[in-house]
Write a structure and sequence with these properties.
Structural class: mainly alpha
Order of helices and strands: HHEEHHHHHHHHHHHHHHHEHE
Helix content: 55-70%
CATH superfamily of the largest domain: Ammonium transporter AmtB like domains
Number of domains: 2
Strand order of the largest sheet: 1-2
Largest sheet: 2 strands, antiparallel
Radius of gyration: 23 Å
Number of helices: 18
Distance between the termini: 60 Å
Length: 484
């Protein structure tokens, strides 16, 4: 593709308008966010589930990452950040053409003003190519689907998942992204969602719980005993997620600026506080510190700070960490066991608690702790302030509540419709014989060459290239391996 000479500087290869520092940071931030999914969540899912579901769980995340990218550049990016079709939706279109051009603004030029003439929410105008924004926003879309998958591990039909991913991206994610980030009605209204507490975490948690209802539960045996197959690998995946969150929140201002620095530091302060609070609660009530509990506390802290990472002060990040380490702990460890509806729905990894509850909590706390001067640095939301700062702070909290209700309602309805549609095409749930065996039956592959759950592996039943080569090397001798 040839680039018009007007876009080139006298150097011949660098446009005059390009900010190299911002562009470099944005590409780096996007890459580390992508690493939260691949390999971060791939490793976390593959190691946090029962051994017989390790391959299937990791593959669900791996597939979603690839599928979202193709859908994103083909039509979904423009639906999220393109020209307005509806107040909550952009017009579909490819983002493959003139990606070298300057991204003039991330949102339409429709602006709302306060009575004193100051701009309520301005457009962002980063000085780097559109391709950078397309890439950065892709990794956010991808991780949302992968987080949603955490509610469905251990029983969803993989073919149904293959259909679900593009449908949910198109009819749910793009609506939340456009409404809150891309110039839609919630953005114009001044709702603050710094890096996706509502767009990503609240939506994935609510949609995951809804989809889990339609898919149905795991086998009773799996629900009663579902130990992680590798706790050390779980920590490896969790570590990639934690450090990758620097790009998740630090890239939200679209520039390497003060707001980005505040966001990164606040992110880690909140995550560490939440992890420690969750662990202390485990010790106090269960007499043992839990590694899995610590990972859950880390995640809830990261999720909670996300909607306000760059607009709250450090002391507020600690307060949010205390809340995110205790309130989701209470809903998961206490409330979940007392609410029959939550017990009936099999949310495999507790995504509702770690993402929906923590994301909602973070969005509301942002409405309380958003500091006026820091708000002014982020997308020029000039007159926004949290309720803790008096003035019109209560108005901001009200806006956050309305936005949360919209995201919750939209995801319940749209996710239900998508599941019903997919169910007419293929079963949402695996057949019982696959549920009994796991990865061997679904993919013809095993995560580890270790057998100890009572199942039998017959090499003639599987047709993967690796098995065929193994059978050839054994001169076509069939040898069942008894699991002891």
């Amino acid at each position: 593709m040839s680039v018009p000479s007007a876009y080139l500087s006298t150097g011949g290869n660098v446009p005059d308008w390009l900010n190299k520092g911002d562009n470099a940071w944005q590409l780096t931030a996007a890459t580390v966010v992508g690493m939260q999914s691949v390999p971060g969540l791939v490793i976390l899912y593959g190691s946090m589930v029962k051994k017989k579901w390790a391959v299937n769980s990791a593959f669900m995340a791996f597939y979603a990452f690839a599928a979202v990218l193709i859908c994103w550049v083909t039509w979904a990016y423009k639906m999220s950040f393109g020209e307005k079709l509806l107040p909550l939706w952009g017009k579909a279109g490819p983002a493959l053409g003139q990606s070298y051009l300057l991204q003039q603004a991330l949102v339409p030029a429709t602006n709302h003003y306060f009575s004193d003439g100051t701009l309520e929410t301005a457009a962002a105008a980063p000085f780097y190519p559109m391709a950078t924004i397309v890439y950065f926003q892709f990794v956010f879309a991808a991780i949302t689907l992968i987080l949603l998958a955490g509610s469905l591990l251990g029983r969803m039909n993989f073919i149904a998942w293959m259909l679900f991913v593009p449908l949910w991206l198109t009819f749910s994610y793009t609506v939340g992204a456009f409404s809150l980030w891309g110039g839609g009605f919630l953005f114009q209204w001044g709702v603050i969602d710094f890096a996706g507490g509502f767009v990503i975490h609240l939506s994935s948690g609510i949609a995951g719980l809804t989809a889990a209802y339609w898919v149905g539960p795991r086998l009773t045996k799996d629900r009663e005993s579902f130990p992680p197959n590798n706790v050390l690998l779980t920590l490896t995946g969790a570590g990639l997620i934690w450090l990758g969150w620097s790009g998740f929140n630090g890239g939200a201002p679209y520039a390497a600026n003060l707001s980005a620095s505040m966001a990164v530091l606040n992110t880690h302060i909140c995550a560490a506080t939440s992890l420690l609070v969750w662990t202390c609660l485990d010790v106090f009530f269960f007499k043992k510190p839990s590694v899995i509990g610590a990972v859950q506390g880390m995640i809830t802290g990261l999720v909670c700070i996300t909607p306000g990472a760059g607009v709250v002060q450090g002391w507020a990040a600690i307060v949010m960490g205390v809340a995110s380490g205790s309130i989701p702990w209470f809903t998961m460890m206490v409330l979940h066991k007392r609410i029959k509806l939550l017990q009936r729905i099999d949310d495999t990894l507790g995504v509702f608690h770690t993402h929906a509850v923590a994301g909602l909590l973070g969005g509301l706390l942002t409405g309380i702790f958003a500091e006026p001067r820091l708000c002014n640095l982020f997308l020029a939301v000039t007159n926004s302030r949290g309720a803790a700062y008096r003035g019109e702070g209560g108005v901001q909290l009200g806006k956050q509540i309305v936005a949360a209700l919209f995201v919750i309602g939209w995801n319940i309805v749209v996710t239900s419709i998508i599941c019903v549609v997919v169910k007419f095409i293929v079963p949402l749930r695996m057949p019982e014989e696959h549920l009994l065996v796991g990865d061997d039956a679904v993919h013809g592959e095993d995560a580890y060459a270790l057998y100890g759950e009572g199942e039998k592996f017959d090499i003639t039943m599987h047709s993967s290239p690796a098995n065929e080569m193994h059978q050839y090397n054994q001169h076509s001798v069939v040898f069942p391996i008894e699991r002891v």
